Structures are given as C-alpha cells and as structure tokens.
Batch of 2 targets.
Target 1
Amino acid sequence: MSILVVGSLAFDDIETPFGSSPDTLGGSSTYIALSASYFTSDINMVGVVGSDFTDEHFGLLHSRNINTNGIQKVEDGKTFRWAGRYHYDMNTRDTLDTQLNVFADFDPHVPAEYRSSEIVCLGNIDPELQIKVLDQITAPKMVICDTMNFWIEGKPEELKKTLERVDIFIINDSEARILSGDPNLVKSARIIRAMGPKILIIKKGEHGALLFTDNGIFAAPAYPLESIYDPTGAGDTFAGGFIGHLTRCGTITDLELRKGVLYGSAMASFCVEKFGTERLNGLDLLEIEDRYQSFLDLSRIDG
Amino acid sequence: MSILVVGSLAFDDIETPFGSSPDTLGGSSTYIALSASYFTSDINMVGVVGSDFTDEHFGLLHSRNINTNGIQKVEDGKTFRWAGRYHYDMNTRDTLDTQLNVFADFDPHVPAEYRSSEIVCLGNIDPELQIKVLDQITAPKMVICDTMNFWIEGKPEELKKTLERVDIFIINDSEARILSGDPNLVKSARIIRAMGPKILIIKKGEHGALLFTDNGIFAAPAYPLESIYDPTGAGDTFAGGFIGHLTRCGTITDLELRKGVLYGSAMASFCVEKFGTERLNGLDLLEIEDRYQSFLDLSRIDG
C-alpha cells in the first residue's frame, strides 16, 4: 500500500540550550515521510516549496525513496520558514519567527497517480486544506490526521468537518484538552472520538503516549533519553513511524496499533538525538528494531 | 517479615474542585500503613498524635490489623494539621496552613519489640529523625525512604547522610531534579543512586513512575482515571503498596520490584478516587488484583 503525505516542508532556525542549527530542513510532511520511509517504500508527498529548496534537499528525500512529484516548486517564492528557541528543560519553546512564504497560497493538488492512495496522512495544516485533499482521493482506506492549537482555536468548525472523515487522529495532551474542553484526558478522548476518529492517539511528550480504541487504552512509555538535543519534529516523526508500521503490516488490529505506537515512539526517540532531520537520514533497520525492543523492555512484566 | 513505618499522622483540611473534606485523617505513615495492610499483616507504626486523635482513629488502623503501640499520644497536645487546596487541573496545590503541633517535638522512639524489624519504611519527615530511627534498628534488611523538597532544600547534608543507609528511595520528578541539580531524569537517577540507594523510584504523578535498578529502567504507566477526587496521599499510598508487595513475596528481584511498582500504582489509583483515606478503608483483594491486571493490560504487547 502507498502512503500519501500532505503537509509542510520548511526551513527551521532552531536554538536549544545545546547549540543552534540555522536553515535546517524541516516541516511536518518531511519528518513524517522520512520516518515512514524505514517501514515502506511507496511514499508520495504533496506540498509546496520555493526556489531555495534545492536539488540537494530533493535528493535527500529521494535517497529515502520518497516520491516528490507532488511537491510544487514556486520559482519566484521562498520556502516556509520557522524559527524557535527551546527553554532549558526542553519541554517549552518560544516561536521567534514564522514566515509562511509560498505556504500562504498553498492549494494542495493531488497528482492523478496519487488519487487512488489507500492511506492518507494529513500533516498539521489548515483543516480547510485537509478537506481539499480528502476531496481529491477516490476511496481512502485509512485517513490519519494531525493538527495544532492554532487550528483548534482558529478554525474549530472546519477542523470538526475534517475529523468526521478521519480514522486516526494524533494530537498532543494540551491540544486534546483545548479541543474537548475537558482537563481529564480520558473524558477528552471520549469527546474527541465522538467527533469522528475511532482511533485516537494523545501524545504526552516526555511522558509517552496514550492510544484509545474501542477495545481500551494503551499507555506507551517515553524512552528515558539521557540527551535530548532538539525536540523539533518529534511528533511528526512519531506519526511517520506509526503509519509506516501499519502500512507495512497491512492490518489494523489493536495489537498492530499498539506496536505502531511503540515504533512511532522509537522513531521519535531517535529524532530528538540530533538537530532537525539529521538523525532520521542514516538510520538502519537493526537499530530501529533494537530501540523498539528497548521500548518493550521498558514496560515488560514477565512471569 | 514485619514492616516498621515511621512518619506523620495528621488531620487534613482538603479542598478540591469537587468539594471539601475537613478534619480528614491523613499523614504519610497513615497512608503507607493502610496501603501496605492489604499485602501483609505485620505492620508496626511509630509516630506521634495529640488528644484529638481518638479511639475511633486508632480503631480504623486496628481494623486493618496495624499495630499502633509505637504511636505516642501527647494528651495536652494537638495532632499535626495540614490544609491545602487543589487547582482545577488537580496537578498543583496550594498549602493554606500547616500546624506542626505535637509533631514539632517528635522524637521517634522505636519500642523494643520493633527494633529487630527487617523492613523499615521512613516516611517523609526530617532526615535527622530518619537517622534517629535507623540508629535504633538492629539489622534492617531493607530501608525504604521518602522525602520532599522542604528537606532537600532545607537539610541537604542530613538527607545525604540518611541516603547512605537507604536501599530504596522514592521521590517525585521535581524533587529528583532539585536533589540532583540536573533537569534530565536519567542523569538525575544516576546522581541520586550514587548517593546510596541502589534502587530508585521516581514518581511522575499522572504520568506514572520510573524504576531504576542496576539492571535497567522500568516505566510504569499511570492509570487513566476518569475522575480524580483528591490526590492527597497518593504518593504515600504508592509506597505502601510497593513495600507491601515486596514484603509479601519476601524477595527483591527486578521482576518483583516491577510488580511492586504496579501494585503501588494500583493502590494510588484507588486512593485518589475518594477524599483522604476513605477509599483505602474498604478495599478487597479481588478489586486490587483487578486493578493490577488493568495496569498490566495498559502496556501489554502480546505477540
């Protein structure tokens, strides 16, 4: 099965207590696609970039077998830019600058050959654009969606229309509380799942993630990392690993969903070890399997 | 094996968004002993109360087969009192009032029949008193210790002397960061374990707990409760269930430590369902086993 990934491509200027990394390749769809590329080889991206997005950047995606035919390049424009600074504890950050650039007029066009995509992954973009993408897909089997508080607060009705068509929704804990209006995550999950997505993942950053399905709740731990250099993209990397695993195994059972959450967590734990997407470029399958095993060991109770 | 529990007995005035509960029986050793009483029947308390601690209160402890001969009753004094108010999210609280009363002059005296205790549980009290207790014990096999930021910041040297004699240290995440001086919990754990306790548990409130031993890290999830009425005593209740399980099985392997963390978590999840110790009074072993099983299910990955 092929995965269609729609979201942002960006250049980030990142500052953390450990250093800074200017002009770093980023964007939600970049992290999602790179992460998923370790699980499946049929990944198609739809997005928009400017002339500053060079062959070298495309080459990096191609080296991971990611199809970029759906990425529009606006020759007289500049790629979306984000600048942020992380605090000492790495859990909070300030956005220093956002330049939408070519992303301001992004009108997602899904190329004909992608319209039969079975798995559609809607990265964190305007929910109106998310719907535009879905309208172009013939018969999606699985729609995964991410969002952020900006859209929850700014376009709640449009987001709710999107959610009616979403199978798996990935959100973080503070966003879940805002969207549901309830501080309790169990109640939040019930309220949000009633909006459409039968499968809900609530990410809790350094505290792991919760998976809610009809069959109950799964609590995935976070990997207790000694060194976190840059949390940028960790959530998207999680989504990519999660979707990649589900695509690879081709079945959505509770067991595979749980494993998917751990694979997503494993990929996110790699992501934060270096700046930007750096760590996601040169992974090998064995170290991913090892990290997954470490996640299993973290919560193992053997009789 | 018998457990010696030393700590505070108190009356708490508790306010939460769900209501208030004045004159509620509390104190670290009360929660610890009540929780442990579901796992072992040989629990001895050492502490101090005033004349307002009536036969009814002693009766409640006796009904759980807890031996109270080591509790000094000061007839012309009043029991330690604490008043606090929890915020909307239940994760933060303000202390409204603290009256040490008879606790101000507490000089723990371990009765002769308790001095051969093999398991000593030092609740959150002045580290100088914790050492005084240890000096009275002949040959403890396992010393468990809790503390709080008040002592970490106020008596760091005394606390470090205590820790040299502690086998299992239980602390929350913010306290671990203060004590170690490092925001990263993995690094914090290494620093704290070098102070003495080979086994360290870092509690993360609604995010579960981490167990650090020579053999690695165990991450226990928190039970995703829909209704949390009162978090007071949850940490002490955790400690009681943890110690109770270890005492019951009589062996300290990594497996039993992990199970102990889940039993402690299960007991804490009951504690917060009602005000004060109310929920800890009428539990039965079957519902504890059921809750423990729910914790196992929360992180289960079956092949």
Note: The longest helix of chain A spans residues 254-271.
Target 2
Amino acid sequence: MTPQISIERLMASVHELGAIGARDGGGVCRLALTDADKAGRDWFVKSLHALNCEVFIDAIGNIWGIRAGRTEDAPVMIGSHIDTVATGGLYDGALGVLAGLEVIAALNASETETDLPVAVAAFTNEEGARFAPDMMGSGVHQGALDLDEMLSTRATSGDALVGEELRRIDYAGQDLPITPSAYLELHIEQGPVLETEGLKIGAVTGVQGIHWTEFTVRGQTNHAGTTPMSLRRDAGQVGFAIARLADEMAQELGEPQVATVGVFEVSPCLVNVVPDRARLTVDMRNTDGDILTSATDRLLSQAQQIAEAAECTLDIRPLARFAPVVFDDALVTRVETAAQNRQLPVKRMPSGAGHDAQMFAPNCPTAMIFVPSNKGLSHNINEHTDATDIEAGAQVLLDVVLDLTGGLK
Amino acid sequence: MTPQISIERLMASVHELGAIGARDGGGVCRLALTDADKAGRDWFVKSLHALNCEVFIDAIGNIWGIRAGRTEDAPVMIGSHIDTVATGGLYDGALGVLAGLEVIAALNASETETDLPVAVAAFTNEEGARFAPDMMGSGVHQGALDLDEMLSTRATSGDALVGEELRRIDYAGQDLPITPSAYLELHIEQGPVLETEGLKIGAVTGVQGIHWTEFTVRGQTNHAGTTPMSLRRDAGQVGFAIARLADEMAQELGEPQVATVGVFEVSPCLVNVVPDRARLTVDMRNTDGDILTSATDRLLSQAQQIAEAAECTLDIRPLARFAPVVFDDALVTRVETAAQNRQLPVKRMPSGAGHDAQMFAPNCPTAMIFVPSNKGLSHNINEHTDATDIEAGAQVLLDVVLDLTGGLK
C-alpha cells in the first residue's frame, strides 16, 4: 500500500496543537520555554510515542523522535519548531513539525519500511521572541552556537535564563550530537509570492543573506521660515535621500534583491523646524552574497556623499551581516521534481526569512518546501494556509522522504 | 543738535528688561500675561513715563506711549513685543520696543520737535507660546482678530483665560482704536542671511506666505525578507518620495521659496517590517502668493500620483494657509536709503517668520528693519546680536522716524 497523507489527520493535529497556548481572539502564544511551550512539547512527545518513535531530548531542549529504518544509518530528518511569537498563527513552524508527524503516521498506516530511519524534530526557540538569538536550538544542535553560552542567555524581558527555564519545564536533556543524512523542512512561505503567482509549492534554494545597517545623520536645526534652502544642514532630507536610494537600488538590481527602510525618526520633529537629526535603518537581502555586499558597499559610500554634500555628518552602524545560505541543489531538484510529478505548480525560490534549515545546510544536504501564505501574512493571528495547499506540501514532503530513505524501493 | 542713538543707553535697557524673567543658565522666560510679563510691562510703562510720554493700555492689554508732535495727526508708531517663548533670548521682540524707547530718548535729549507724534508700542502675546493664536494683541488692535473671542481664549496649558489674566495683572484697559500714519518695527532677523552675506540691515519687504500640509500615507505592513519589491505597498517610501519632492521643488523654484519637512513618522517602525503608515508635514513659504499656491497645488497632486503608483492611500490635511503680506514699497525704500546713507550694507529681503508688523500692513504704510542674528539663532537662550549691529539698526529706525515725522525739517 502506498503511503498517503491524510489531510484530515494532519488538520486535526494542527488544531490540537493550535489549541495549546491559544489566544483570546485568535492565534497562538507559545513563547519559547513558557508553560504553553511546555504543554506543546508534552503534546509532541506524546504524539511521537503514539507513533512508536524513540524520543530524544538534547541539552538545549530540542526534541526529536526516530522511526527506525532497515539500517542504522543516519536518519533523514524532518524539522521545524513549535514555539511562536506573542501573536503567532497556527502554521509558522508548527506545520513543519506536524507534517513530519503525519509523514510518520502515513508510513505507519501503510506499513512502509524505509532503508534509512526517519527523524522528526522540534527545535528550541526558533523565533527568538523571548530569548535572542533566534534559531537557538538548531544552531546549538549543528554546532553554530555555543551550548553553555545559550544556556546562560537571559530573556529579553530579563525574567529568566534559558538553562533555568529548560530545567523548570523539564526539557533539559543531554548532549546528543546527530548529523542526519539529509534535512527537510516544510514551512509556510510567510510572503506573497506563491499566492500571487498561483503556485502551490516553493522549492527553496536557500536563505537570503541579510545586511542591516543603521544610519544616523546629524545636521543643524533651523527656522523653517528664516533659513534659505542654501544655508540649511537638513539631517531629515539626507535621511530621506538615503531611504530613497536604498529603494531605488533594490528596484534597479531586480529580484531577489530587496531593501527596506523600516525605522525612520527625525528630531526635533516639529512642523517649522529643520531637523538636526535623522535615524533610519536599511534592511537589504539577496541570495547572492557578492551582489549583496557590493550593494551595501555602494549604499554606504553614496550615503556618505549625500551627507557630505549637505554638510551633515553620518554615523553608519552595521547591525547585522549574514551571508546567504545555499541549499543542496540536488535535493532542491528532488523537491521540484516531486511537485511536478504531482502536477503541482512549483518554482525554485529563496527564503526571505531565516529557518532552522539554514543551520543544517553546511553539514548535510538540506532543502525546504514552501506552501502559500494567504496574503503573505505571518507572525499574525490571521496567518492562514488552505488545507488543500497543506495537503500538497505534506505529500511532496512524504514523496521526497520516500525518495531519500529508500522507502518503496 | 541732531538726535543720536546712544548705544550705551540702549544696551542698558536691553539688560534691564532682560533681567526681568531671566532664566537660571541664561535667556529669558516672560510668557504672555504671567507675573514676569507683568513685571516687564511695569518696567516699560515706567520707562515711557520717564520719557514724558502719555501712556495708553487697550482692551487686549497692548501698551503704547505717545510723544507729542507739533500736530495732533496720527502718530508714526514703532512697535514690537516684550513677551517671550519659554526659553527666549534677550532680543526677539524686546529689541524693537527698546529701540522705540531709545528713539524717543534721543529725540528728548536733542530736544527735537517732530510734526507727527511718535508712538512706541508693546503688543500682547506676540509669541503665541502660552495662548494661541500668536500676534494676538496687534491682531486685535488692527481688527484682524475679535476682541471678545481673544479675551476668552484659554491658555494651551488650560490654566487661565486671556481676559482673566489681563485683569489679574492689571493690564485690562479699554477699547482704544488707533491707526498710525505709519508703522515701523526693528527686529532681529532670526535667520542666517544677513550674517552669511556680511550685511548689517535688512529692509524687509513683507512676510512670506505660509502653507502647512500634513500627509498621511497608508499602505500595508510586510515582511522585509519575504516580500519582493514589486508586491509591496510601502507607505514609508511614499512618504520619503513626497519629502524629497518638496525639497527638490523649493530648490528648483529658487529663493525665496523654502520647503521644510519637519515631522516624519513611520509605523510600526521596526527594522524588518515594511511600514504601513507614514505621516509627514511640509512647511512651504514664499513671498509670492501665486507661486506659493501653485507650488502647493503641484506638491499635492504629485504626492497623490506617487501614492497611487505605490498602491497606497493618501490623506492630505491643510494645517495652515496664510497669504503673503507685502509691506509698503515706498517705506521699504526709505529704510533701504537710510541704511545706504549711513554706508550700512543693506538688502531688501522678506521675513520668514511672522511679526506684529503684518497686522498693520493692510491699514497703514508699514515696514520692518532687520539686524543680523548670530548664527541665525532665535527662540534660544543663545540668541545674540552684536551691539554695533543694534546701534546701526536703531540709528536707521531713528532716521526713518525723523524722515516720516518731519523732525529736523
């Protein structure tokens, strides 16, 4: 019997887990290592046991279950996270973990044996909403972050340490290194591309590199009426010009380059006073690290010229410089092919957001599967993906798992 | 004997009045109709009496003294104000009143008789810092503002009414209409033009028209990583483009057009979120009402196009629309000529800020004399004008008064 995704069973899981930490008025709040997160973890562990998986908990609180294969080779791992932001939806992270459970349920129901074991993982604190940095569990798991440093990380609110909270909720396990033979993650796109283009599956090629830069411009306050244009040192206008430049550069470079000016402040912020200070941030992303670096360099040097021409001073502070992550091309192609085999409209696309998968990419063949997000909404209680799209994504995940594990060979 | 300005006497007055309401750390706080304002008014009335002037107090609390002429014709009036903003300097307003006193002192000392009487006035609440609108006393005096409405105006802080405060400090007089034969006001420039151009006197041609407009842009929040440029409705970028447009239009129109974006806010104001809302103000000024109106119209219509192209909505709210005030050309020329006769570098220039003089301009020949402001600073405890520049300005004022009143004929 060919294993099949049961969308009824999968959606039942979505709603069962979604009821844990449900917010009044909709959405979910399962901030990492809170009581709600513990309840979600307990539910996940119970579900793994019910599927006859062996359950492991490591020193940073990651949970995974393994369904044995015919061999004891490294498993194919399906992972994501079940922590959420404070006003999260039902799908961000949870869907990847639940689709993993569903893959195992489908293998069990069809009594399918695989050569390689299959693991399903939920990683600690992917969101970074309560403890920084984000992708903490997968980062420690794959050696990108230091365990002891992470255990002594204090909550942004100041109320607790990661290590204390892990012990409190009884999820402080032991060091358990594991390198899977491959890593797969199903996730909602969290963006509008698939929906806009009428596609059902994104074969994710990697994660964009991210450069965050803060610009602080200082000029001179002046009376808006008595100061001719030629005698001004208008920090606001320098800021506006840098903001426009970032946008124009991204438009000019074309996809996948993006640039966002999310923060902009002027002071003194009065109608009839020329501002003496402006502060803005530019978030630039690209899958091509060289293009991204050269775009950032160009922005910084042109911003400096704009400030100098206006006789303003400019402080430039790099807030983040993350290189792009490239997923395994052969594995991305397997995802793409699996979608095509099911007549699902698919495209190769980068991820604009960070995911646990990027921590695995340097160490084992890694790929992700995106399904559409309604209106591109995420980190929002109205986050939604149609059940038929979830079914398609989970089926592609199952197909690739069977392909990789030698199931049905 | 030819009347002469005594700069020693004038600077002694500047420091005597400046001591009333002096702030710890420098500068002056004589907010309208406070105890400090009353003390300043008492000092002014005492000074007028000492110069043998007849003193009048009208229903809105304006104070003027009249030095009799050979005729009983309408006087030449010299006016300004002695109220200040909360962190005011020694010169804004006060200099015009004190220079008027000094003109009378010089006429007295030289025993000069004039055909026309000379009046020196201090108008109530020019600053508008405690009660809105500003230029209240001169506005009521010249019939542009309604007396009863102004008397029942509540302080911005809510603590008192104009009428109550006038009675409390004993400056509620009676309705005393007066139309001078001409109105003159010496004032610090409050801007950097004279200092920058090495000039000593500004022959003020009028007050710029002022258009204040608030723009509120609404788009859609989106994830900075997952939303391609083409699928954004970025309210921030629409705001930046409008802000740049205002500046570019002013640069392109050339002097005296100015445009200032003083207020700019985005929300949610997060590094990695495309803003769904931006609010900005544009302050545009020009001495030519037609050019100003057409510039504002063009800004509004192009702003609308920018918003539409970005699929954002735009709310436009006019906050202020004041037509330019044009001073009497012949009187401006007399100021210019008086400066030239004393080899003082002079230029005709508009005022970027509002002054009591603009209330007189529709009703009698009116002009103003500007003297340089150090670094263009005003409404600032470091406001400063050199004594030699004050002397030059007061001398020009005296020369024009003699010219107009038939003194020394």
Note: Chain B touches chain A through 59 residues (CB under 8 Å).
